[in-house]
Write a structure and sequence with these properties.
single chain; 186 residues; mainly alpha; Arc Repressor Mutant, subunit A; 8 helices
Length: 186
């Protein structure tokens, strides 16, 4: 009897494949994939705290602090005290970090084009939607519950940023519509 390969196994194999290629792509710049992602996220999201980054990467604050310390020694990021809370240090990308990030982005774009070139544009879009839905579910399970499959990945998530207010609003709207339908039936 033949069994289907587990989805989790296929995802792990794909993740290892992508990670290995990303590591190779970044090696000449002396960056790890996690350091690259931290720099990239810091650029897109503006000043973030190490706690924000730890939640985003689903790792301990200590792990993020080690990454930050390494990037700070390389002068790729800077830490400044938050004006709202003096105990919070905000991380921002330095001009050197921005230059390196632009160079790495071009190389990662070329690497991804090669890796995902076997997928036609509609298949790549479907893959991105499915992955974005999984990420959204891991961050906020209520955001994808009872949502039609073709509408599950929020556009804000596909653009690489979380928009919790729109997720909360969408969840409330769905709940409100369900109540209205139920009241009409009763």
């Amino acid at each position: 009897m033949s069994r289907k390969t587990r989805t989790s196994y296929l995802m792990r194999r794909a993740q290892l494949f992508v990670y290995a290629n990303l590591s190779e792509c970044l090696r000449k710049h002396k960056l790890t994939p996690m350091q690259y992602m931290l720099l990239s996220l810091s650029r897109r999201r503006g000043q973030m705290s190490s706690a924000d980054l730890a939640r985003r990467f689903m790792v301990t604050p200590q792990s993020v602090n080690e990454l930050i310390a390494t990037l700070q020694r390389k002068r790729l990021i800077a830490r400044t005290r938050s004006s709202e809370n003096r105990r919070v240090l905000r991380i921002s990308v330095t001009p050197d970090g921005s230059r390196l990030l632009r160079t790495c982005d071009r190389e990662v774009d070329a690497m991804e084009k090669g890796l995902f070139g076997c997928l036609k544009p509609p298949a790549l879009k479907a893959l991105r939607n499915a992955l974005a839905t999984l990420v959204a579910a891991s961050e906020n399970p209520l955001a994808v519950q009872n949502t039609p499959p073709d509408r599950r990945a929020p556009p804000a998530l596909l653009a690489g940023r979380r928009d919790w207010m729109s997720v909360r609003t969408a969840t409330r709207l769905r709940t409100s519509r369900r109540r209205q339908r139920k009241q009409r039936r009763d």
